[in-house]
Amino acid sequence: MTANTQRPQTNTVSRFREVLPQVLAMGAANMVVINLTLALLLSTLVIAEVHHSDAELSMDDTLASWFGSLPFFCQPVGSILSGFVVQWLGRKRSLMLINIPYFVGYVLISTAPSITVLFLANVLLGTTVGFTEAPINSYFGEICQPELRSILAGSAAIFYQVGMFVLFVLGSLTTWRVTAGVVAVIPVVTMIMISQVPESPIWLIAQGRLKDAETSLCWLRGWVDRGAYDRVTTKSAQKRADDRETKNLLEEHNMSEYKPSPELNGFLSDNQATKQATSDNAQLPSCEDNTDPTMREVALEMKNIAGHDENQRMISPVDKQITIEKELSTEVFTAEVSDGGRKSKFVTMVKLLVQPETLRPLFLTVSFFSFYGFGGMPSIRPFLVEVIDNFHTPIKGSWSSVAMAVTGFLGSVVMIGSVNRLGKRSLAMSSVAVCALSCLLLGVYDYLFVDRATWVPLVLFTVFSFANSIQGQIPWLLVAEAFPFRTRGLAGGMAAASNYIASFIAAKTFLSTEHSLQMYGSFWFFGVVNCLCFAFLYFLLPETEGKSLEEIEHLFAGNKDHK
């Protein structure tokens, strides 16, 4: 082999090492999902013991319906406000601070001396759930490589089911007070775990903190050595211009006009020679220090974040003067001078929200969440133990709820394992169809065999839980990826708020609905709602699986010419 054909020996970072830090970061963030689950479901354990109870703390139907639905009622306030707070504090800091009210809420429930304190604790927990939505969904969408985004963001469903399982097992073994006291440890553990993972590189760039963004990206792509990264950025790109493994993150988030810092200029200025070499399939010159190719990939990804993708048309330095602060912070969060007057922040935000790339996914997710809210599970969740007992299953309702949590967990695993192969559209429609059939059959069983103690209703409930865990996660995946960066925080918060508004109405009215329509009529109603949801998704839900954030944005914007 001649000297001209010899290549330097390099130690590559394995794919496992590249993926592991993203998994760890998502795992830490998903601990917040467990807190969210506990906050929403603690009322189920409380209601099961104090509803029509002779104990010191007791609730009638009116108090029970308000208590069970209160977290959903308070959530929209926190959800909408969180869209602004997360842009100010950042994703990581927001995820850390929200653990404080979770801890306080659990302690209040554990020690509550009166019904009033229980209600105050539920108000605090519900509002905190709302504040959770924007930072966690934004973080999910911004730290992962595109090919891993659906799997890792979908892992939130597993943590949700784990939280549900732990809560119901504790509730079956001990009292609701002890359960609340035990789970108060989880927010402390969560805060410690999140403190060890990096901030979103996209948010750091939006704040002009390019060096911190580079460090964050190096951590997330396999703990790449920063010193080696700096050496790469001063040498040739060492990367094919058509490399599809490192996506243009900034372009995906509508931030392609970012002006890079001087630290990247040496790396970015070498693009012409690289383009010529790659177009001729020629061997690129190697770095003198035999730098790890994975470090070069991180450098290229950071270069792409800076908006200098070699596949994009070259933009003159004059046109590049619009900085990321102008693109994001000025457009969205500050008043802007135009036509001799100042546009209010409200008007500017409304204009961004009504653009097709935001309005269309917002309509889709709000509608999907609304169908889901009235489709059964959110309605019965605060009264789950009592509802199951109404069907006279061979085991107690508390342990039946544990079985439902197990099947829900299995459904989440199936969703994560199959979403890349089957796509979100197929999973959403099939899960909604199964939910519709399960609810209709539960209604038929309650109508015909209400006094019989068989395993049939428990089987139907577990099938319903399995499918519902898949159905309920799909709109959250859409929230994590469907909105442009400029409106992701607020639009994601609005979508999440719609979910909890629908869930509040469904939970608050369930007892009245059950009294009016009977149990079988209520489940027939849930079945009809799921049938309508199936028709809605059939006509309006596009397939977004496997697409980059930029491609999804163009899809909803209706740009058919975009490749």
What are the salient characteristics of this protein?
563 residues; mainly alpha; Growth Hormone, Chain: A; 2 domains; two-stranded antiparallel sheet; 24 helices
Q: How would you summarize what this structure contains?
A:
This protein is an all-alpha fold. The chain has helices at residues 15-50, 61-89, 91-97, 99-111, 115-143, 146-173, 176-183, 185-194, 201-206, 210-220, 226-232, 249-252, 265-268, 271-279, 293-305, 324-333, 345-353, 356-373, 377-380, 384-390, 397-448, 456-481, 485-540, 549-557; strands at 336-338, 341-343.
Structure description:
The protein has 563 residues and is an all-alpha fold. The protein has two domains: 15-197 and 354-555, Up-down Bundle (Growth Hormone, Chain: A), CATH 1.20.1250; 211-325, no CATH class. 72% of the residues lie in helices and 1% in strands. It has helices at residues 15-50, 61-89, 91-97, 99-111, 115-143, 146-173, 176-183, 185-194, 201-206, 210-220, 226-232, 249-252, 265-268, 271-279, 293-305, 324-333, 345-353, 356-373, 377-380, 384-390, 397-448, 456-481, 485-540, 549-557; strands at residues 336-338, 341-343. Strands 1-2 form a two-stranded antiparallel ribbon. Strand 1 and strand 2 form a beta hairpin. Helix 18 packs across helix 23 (485-540). The protein is globular and about 65 Å long.
